[in-house]
Input
Amino acid sequence: MAKEAFSQSGASASLDEIAKEAGVGPGTLYRHFPTREDLLAAVYRTEVEKLAAAERKFAETLPPVEALRAWMLLFVDYIAAKQIIAPVLNALAGDPKKVFEASHGQIWEAIRALVKRAIKSGDIRKDLDPIDLLRALIGVANVATSRDWQQSARRLVDILIIGSRPI
Output
């Protein structure tokens, strides 16, 4: 509920409304998340955990290149959540780097494993660096000036997959 509220209303979404939508009282929400920043950090960590879990699920249930594509599409959603959350976490008096650094390893391992699997299957060229795929998607998000950047990023996923095929 918090991710949806933050996505629709930004980082200043009403915490009381989030509690109401989640079916809990404001006291319950504040007991678990004493500050807005705590809730935003929890949403961010949840998104990273979803990416890590999705890598394993997709690898078990989809052909290699489709698993990579599905994960990259999910990564676009993660970027959208991070764009809302990052400015608030960066403004904290504490050290937001801890939140972001912990996620970096999980994301890197997920994309690396999916690309390695797709290379092994012959679906993806051997010289592909997994970080290049992430940089391309992040680049679209960082230069986005319109609200439909996510649709553009989703199209880019397909372009990147096609461009990553062996020549």
Notes: DSSP finds eight helices and no strands in the chain.
